[in-house]
Amino acid sequence: MKSIIIVLVGQPNVGKSMLINALCKSNLRVGNFPGVTIEKASAKITYKNYRLDFIDLPGTYDLNGYSEEEKVTKKFLENEHYDVIINVLDSTNLERNLILTAQLLDVQKKMILALNMQDEAQQEGFEIDTQNLSALIKTPCLSLSAKTKENLDLLLESIVQNYESEFQGCDRNFSQNIEQNLEKITHFIDTHSISHSKNSSRQFALALLKNELENENNELLNCVKQCQNELMQSHGSDDLNYIFKEEILSFAANLNAQVVKKTPTLKNITQSIDALLINKYLGIPIFLFFMWALFQLTFSLGSIPMDYIEAGFTALGELCKELIPNELFASVLADGIIGGVGAVILFLPNILILFFGIALLENTGYVARVAFLLDGILHKFGLHGKSFIPLITGFGCSVPAFMSTRILKNKKDRLLTLFIINFMSCGARLPVYVLFIGAFFPEEQAGNYLFGIYLLGAFLGLLSAKVLRMTAFRGLNEPFVMEMPKYRMPHWGLVWQMCFNKAKMYLKKAGTFILLASILIWFVSNFPQQNEDIKDELKAQEQLIENSYLGQFGKAIQPFFAPLDFDWRLSVSLISGLAAKEVMISTLGVLYSLGDGVDENDEGLRGILAQNVPFTTAVAYVLFVMIYNPCFAATTVFSKESGKGTFTLYLFLFTCVMAYIVAFVGINLAKFFA
Questions:
Q1: What sign results for the dihedral spanned by CA atoms 598, 600, 605, 606?
Q2: Which of 58, 65, 214, 405 could form a disulfide with 69 if both were Cys (CB 3.0 to 4.6 A apart)?
Q3: Do strands 50-56 and 41-47 pair parallel, antiparallel, or not at all (unpaired)?
Q4: Which of 40, 12, 21 is nearest to 493 (CA)?
Q5: Any bridge partners for residue 141, and if so which?
Q6: In whole angstroms, what is the distance from residue 180 CA to residue 164 CA?
Q7: How far is 414 from 383, CA to CA, in rounded Å?
Q8: Angle at 322 between CA 320 and CA 328, to 5 degrees
Q9: Alpha-helix runs per DSSP H in 196-268
């Protein structure tokens, strides 16, 4: 079966990922804001005895852009093998999208223009003559909608036809002045039989005129120089890049005028909503209210199934101890596997509610508005307005958050944002917060405390950003420029898919990595076996765990955490959290189920913690967890995105020292006000 490699190229937020999902029934991440696709992604489908391999490249406004994601797109188009380009355009904003189309025509590859969001264009009164557009640029064009799946079959058919047909070239017309000079250079090349590697003499001449190529023929270089001087004189500028950018803008405007008709419609609904949501005075309070409501729902709704899950795992553990005669095997199953894994699965409902809320914010187009709203505040602390995109992504997971810093063009802005993302508490920290809030605070106020933790982390992140900007990352900020996407109703299938994938990943981690970690923690907390004859079973368990390998390690590191009043169990859980924050829960679940405080009247792990951990210590523990180093996977991605291994060491030292200082201040304030 023959393979056709198709690359999807377009400006940010035109629906490339959604189009691939619709064609291939895949589940690439989709969001209604720029910067969702941050590296190339792929999916495939079989059609008419062909295997169609689709590659989704990061959105780019300009093939000569300087951001990391734009470099990924340009490098792929210039160096990799592919058969067809699908240029995805937003039908409701065609003129702006045609700017990139003009550059893609110069790439000289087989191409199809896919005018996406045709359903929205019709609602807004746009009428696009795709046949005329196709004739003007000698490239197949068709209207479609990834959302409603309109004309997707025509797109697949067009891909096969385009692949099977002979490439005719995609030369576009320039203004009269540029065309005249191109003709002079082309004529010189042909009459002097100058060899070149381009598809045509015209393409070679264009590359020379734009200073994209060099040639050793002095006569040709003189001809090119004369033509360039003539262009500069006629345009009143000595900047060739500026001249050709103006040429592209003119090309897009003229082309758009010939193929688009607009019927007057009522005021755009996006403008009406923006009048409230990005209001100068109400915008930020509304955003804070939305976040407060999300954390309220995360705790209040999540606590309902959480109680049943906790009761189920507790009963299952007790049943194992009753039915299995071998005490050691019963312990590893009940206390190690069920206690450790169950303590993590317990918080799955909270995770799902948080990610559902974040998915709604992303898919409606609200995230870009908040970036605009907070640009002034972020700028005062040394961050870029676009930094908000990776920062809010960090509330879900630090891995994609670190990767999404590629939307920032300035290297220092990227590095600063990378260091601050860790202050945005990821979803893996949420179970720790829920556990300790449930143990030490009244349920009716739990959502407020959860919101406060996230807000405090963000505030500390801003303060740290200010300090880092004034010291390690001094320099000017880039100006804030970001597209404001239209508000759109969430695609509920995609929202469900995002939540389902998160649940699957969470359960997969619980059933693999956390399961192994729980067994390991159980083993090192039960061995070496001891022969002391202690009649009191509770004291025997205490003696066993304190003299175990894990107990010895915990006692060794406890002095370091002594100023924070952490016992050896809490200290060990912080070390295990360097691997993955969820492991902290399984560590606590295993250690406290084996140690003191276990009786028939306890209320699960929350009850045990409330009995054995002082309130002030709990405050310090949560503050430490809120700031210190991200998990191993996120740290690996940070190292890759920062570009230097030394930055990873700086991140570890910076976050751990900050966590220790904040926790120390927190415990002393808690003691003072207690």
A1: negative
A2: 58
A3: antiparallel
A4: 21
A5: 113
A6: 35
A7: 9
A8: 65
A9: 201-209, 218-235, 240-259
CA distance 200 to 195: 10
Whether the pLDDT of residue 303 is over 50: the answer is yes
pLDDT tens-digit readout, 343-372 = 788 888 988 898 888 888 878 888 878 888
Kindly give the residue spans of alpha helices, DSSP state H, lying in 106-196.
Answer: 118-123, 130-137, 152-164, 176-191
pTM of the shown model: 0.72
Of 607, 580, 578, 579, the residue nearest 593 (C-alpha): 607
| pLDDT value at 22 more than 70 | yes
Closest to 15 in 3D by CA, of 109, 110, 145, 105 = 145
The residue type of 272 is: S
Percentage of the chain beyond pLDDT 70 is 91
pLDDT in tens, 455-513: 999 999 999 999 998 888 876 666 555 667 777 777 787 788 778 888 888 888 778 87
What is the signed CA dihedral for 188, 190, 191, 194, rounded to 10 degrees?
80
385 near 379, Cβ under 8 Å?
Answer: yes
Omega within 30 of 0 (cis) for the link into 325: no
Helix (H, G, I), strand (E, B) or coil at 630: coil
pLDDT of 41 strictly over 80: no
Place of tokens 């990352």: 473
Say if residue 329's pLDDT is above 50: yes
CA distances from 174 to 179, 203, 213, 475 (A): 6, 13, 19, 40
Q: Which residue type is seen at 204?
A: F
CA distance linking residue 143 with residue 186, whole number of Å: 36
Structure tokens that stand for 111 in this block: 């191409």
Residues 6 or more apart in contact with residue 500 via CB below 8 angstroms: none
User: CA torsion sign, 375 to 378 to 380 to 383?
Assistant: negative
Report CA torsion sign: 86, 89, 91, 94.
negative
Mean pLDDT on 94-109: 90
